[in-house]
Write a structure and sequence with these properties.
Length: 102
């Protein structure tokens, strides 16, 4: 792959792939190498700003169900992410909901 983006410009790509300049990857995407390919953040992760070099796991009370998320969604009051782990792609029932309020 032809890359003209200098070191220190990670989070960018060359859209024409011919040395015409570097463009920041859009929010929800990342590029670890200068001039590399922009890659969608996986479900359960997000990238809030253009030009990201990596994606961040959603917090324990949040999720992102699809790839290329620019933000995570907060679980509603009746659900939680599985075992309160970060990087979840869905929220589940709370123990109260699961056990019928016991």
């Amino acid at each position: 792959m032809f890359s003209v983006c200098a070191a220190g410009h990670e989070g960018t790509f060359d859209p024409a792939n011919v040395g015409g300049g570097c463009t920041a990857c859009a929010a929800g995407k990342f590029s670890a190498a200068a001039g590399g390919t922009c890659t969608d953040c996986a479900a359960g992760t997000f990238s809030p700003a253009a030009g990201s070099t990596s994606c961040t796991d959603c917090n324990a009370d949040e999720f992102s169900a699809t790839a290329a998320a620019a933000a995570c969604t907060t679980c509603d009051a009746t659900s939680e992410t599985t075992d309160s782990y970060t990087g979840q792609s869905a929220c589940g029932e709370t123990n109260v909901d699961f056990f019928g309020g016991l």
